[in-house]
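C-alpha cells incoming
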C-alpha cells in the first residue's frame, strides 16, 4: 500500500484519497461564448505526460481538503505535495 502525504494530516494510505485530474487547468474566461467543441476540449482533453505530472487530489476519507501533488507517472511515486494556494515546486 502506498502512502500519500496529505499537507494537513500527514501520510495516509492511498485508499483514503480521490484523484481529481490534472492540476493548474484554468477555467475558461468567457465560458458562455464557448462552442460545444471548445467545451469538450476543456472538459475532456488533458495532458498525458510521461514523468513528473501535476495533479489534484482530495483526502476524501480524512480532512476532505483538496491539494496538488507532483507524481511521476512512470513509477507512481509522489515527488511533492502542496496546498492549492501554494506555488508549484520546481521538480528537476
Amino acid at each position: 500500500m502506498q502512502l500519500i502525504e496529505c499537507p494537513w494530516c500527514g501520510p495516509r494510505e492511498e485508499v483514503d484519497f480521490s484523484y481529481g485530474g490534472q492540476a493548474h487547468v484554468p477555467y475558461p474566461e468567457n465560458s458562455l461564448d464557448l462552442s460545444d467543441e471548445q467545451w469538450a476540449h476543456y472538459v475532456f482533453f488533458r495532458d498525458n505526460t510521461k514523468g513528473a505530472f501535476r495533479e489534484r487530489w482530495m483526502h476524501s476519507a480524512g480532512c476532505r481538503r483538496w491539494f496538488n501533488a507532483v507524481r511521476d507517472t512512470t513509477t507512481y511515486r509522489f515527488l511533492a505535495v502542496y496546498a492549492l494556494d501554494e506555488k508549484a515546486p520546481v521538480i528537476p
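note: The radius of gyration is 15 Å.
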